[in-house]
Amino acid sequence: MRRGLKFVPPALLLLALLELTVFVLVGRGVGFGFAVLLVFAASLLGLVLLRREGMRAWRGFRAAVESGQPPGRQVTDGLVGLLGALLLALPGLVSGVVGLLLLVPPLRRLAGAGVRRATERRVSSMVAGDLFGPRRVRVRRGAPQPTPTPQQPPVTEPGRAIEGEIVEPGR
Question: What is d(CA 8, CA 29) in angstroms, rounded to the nearest whole number?
Fold first, then answer.
């Protein structure tokens, strides 16, 4: 966890430089006043959506708990919506566009699935089951593939390479 934190200050600096560069380019293209108005309008919309998304997330969480279902999907959907609204509320064109994209339903579901996968990797399977319900497992039909033992080289098909070696038929 701490290893990743050392990248936060340089990332924030790069984000600020990117926001400033995009603002200057947009200001040159459409005019400085219109660019400021665009940033102000996006921030105002983000503040309105922040309240709406917060209430929506809370209602979804309560409905899941009251019906006895795992609340994980509602929580992740609410978190992605809140993040999108927060990014839209921040003054900046790049963060506004990213926040707006997180509020689009297909991209929101995609981001929510990513949050769920990351959460399931970081918490125990018991906690993940309590949050998101039972995991779905893909079952492949057919003959089971032999697993190689440390003493035995892996079984391959003829003509297929393993670590730079070609396994020829009959050898």
Answer: 31
> Cα-atom radius of gyration of the chain, to the nearest Å?
24
Dist. CA 38–CA 94, nearest whole Å: 12
> Residue 51 is which amino acid?
R
Query: For 119-167, how does the pLDDT look when each residue is reduced to its tens digit (9 = 90+)?
Result: 777 777 767 666 676 666 677 777 777 776 666 555 555 555 455 444 4
The dihedral of CA 92, 97, 98, 103: what is its sign?
positive
Q: Give me the pLDDT at residue 135, please.
A: 65
If DSSP codes are grouped into helix, strand and coil, which group holds residue 150? coil
Segment 28-72, tens digit of pLDDT = 999 999 999 999 999 999 999 988 888 888 888 888 878 877 777
List of residues 6+ apart from 94 with CB closer than 8 A: 15, 18, 19, 22
Are the C-beta atoms of residues 39 and 91 closer than 8 Å to each other? yes
> How far apart are the C-alpha atoms of 82 and 52, rounded to whole Å?
9
- Is 0.85 topped by the overall pTM? no
